[in-house]
Design a protein that fits this description.
The protein is α+β, with helices and mostly antiparallel strands and 307 residues long. The chain contains 6 helices and 14 strands.
Length: 307
């Protein structure tokens, strides 16, 4: 159980050390599972993989299906809420306690994402100062809770997470969210205040989503893997589709009529687009066939014209 002093410290700093949540055997099993998913040795259609290029953060490739990106030089493996080995960690009782404190003891809680974040050996992409929230996430409200669990030792030497303590109290620095702009970095992120959060395998951190944080490259000879999950008020909806997200704790809230209508409208539009696409592809096929039939006539016409 977390005490009141723990929560008071979290309110001030924006992060909390939650202690050990996995034993050594569980850690090894999850590391192996992450790599098996990345290599496609374990198949799961809900899982996607993002490669780590070691280049500029803004130029990272999009996450892809397992078939398209099998490699151990991955940056993230996402969709782990659908994996049978990772699902119990998503639903850990301590994480339920955290969510009850921050969202309310009777609130339903859903999951935005559950994934492995990896810094491959002798590589890793620099993740600049940023906040987890804003319009870039396409949600109708900002999540507040991210839990981070080390699977490998996370140290300064291999690119552990660094934070600016108390920066969550600034709120989101821009509506779009994500990367902190240079002027705000200069104002709020002096190097003297950057605090590395070194974590042993199996131990967890609670991070407020608005806490400014970053991580560097991993020049060491071993990977630096961590599990991370972002929990939300279960009423949260996608602003793109009106859809909700997988329920983790508590009960699902009722769907408001206007959101139900939005979902129905989106379904109709998707069906209409699929029908129009199929029709267009059919016309293209007919034109290709017609072109084949007409080619001899065009040749004969050119010959007669020259005669």
């Amino acid at each position: 159980m977390l005490g009141e002093k723990d929560w008071q410290a979290f309110d001030v700093s924006g992060f909390m050390r939650l202690g050990q949540v996995l034993d050594a055997e569980q850690v090894e099993a999850l590391k192996q599972r992450a790599d098996d998913l990345a290599l496609g040795a374990v198949r799961n259609p809900a899982v996607q993989l993002q490669r780590d290029t070691g280049g500029v953060y803004e130029e990272l490739p999009q996450a892809q299906a397992q078939d398209d990106g099998a490699t151990l030089r991955y940056r993230k493996v996402q969709g782990l809420e659908a994996d049978e080995l990772f699902r119990p960690l998503v639903q850990h009782p301590l994480f339920r306690e955290v969510c009850a404190r921050l969202y309310g003891p009777h609130a339903g809680v859903s999951l935005f994402r559950a994934m492995i974040m990896n810094k491959p050996a002798e590589q890793g992409t620099v993740l600049p100062w940023h906040q987890d929230g804003g319009d870039v996430w396409a949600l109708d409200r900002d999540p507040l809770v991210t839990i981070w669990v080390a699977l490998d030792p996370a140290t300064v030497a291999n690119g552990c997470v660094e934070v600016i303590p108390g920066s969550h109290r600034l709120g989101l620095l821009r509506t779009y969210g994500s990367t902190v702009l240079p002027d705000d970095v200069a104002r709020h992120c002096p190097e003297s205040q950057a605090l590395p959060l070194e974590v042993e395998p199996g131990y967890a951190l609670l991070l407020h989503n608005w806490l400014i944080h970053r991580s560097g490259v991993n020049p060491s000879t071993t990977s630096r893997r961590a599990f991370t999950a972002c929990y939300m008020d279960a009423r949260t909806q996608s602003t793109l589709t009106g859809d909700g997200f997988p329920l983790v704790f508590g009960q699902a809230p009722p769907v408001h009529p206007h959101l139900r209508q939005l979902r129905d409208d989106c379904a109709i539009l998707r069906a209409s687009i699929a029908e129009a696409t199929a029709y267009a592809q059919g016309l293209e096929a007919q034109l290709r066939r017609s072109d084949g039939w007409l080619a001899p006539l065009r040749w004969l016409s050119r010959r007669l014209g020259r005669g």
